[in-house]
Specification:
Blueprint: H1 5-21, H2 28-53, H3 57-69
Helix pairs in contact: 1-2, 1-3, 2-3
Length: 76
């Protein structure tokens, strides 16, 4: 199943959150594995989405990372 852009944003947020958990994890190895799994899921979904849309993979990945890390401000 092809992923939507919104799916990719959710997956990247999950990877970013999992990475942040490394700082406070009681079980670092488990937290690291969770982060790596989340990052791998994101990367696989990006590849699938880019192929389905006929877009360069790097363009898709960078657009998602920008949306997650530098979101547009909401109108008041």
């Amino acid at each position: 199943m092809a992923h939507t852009f919104e799916d990719l944003v959710k997956l990247e947020r999950a990877a970013v959150d999992a990475h942040a958990q490394l700082q406070t994890a009681d079980d670092y190895d488990s937290a690291r594995q969770a982060w790596l799994a989340a990052a791998a899921a994101f990367q696989a979904a990006v590849t699938e989405h880019a192929d389905a849309e006929g877009k360069p993979r790097v363009d898709v990945e960078m657009a998602v990372k920008k949306a997650v890390r530098h979101p547009e401000p909401a109108d008041a």
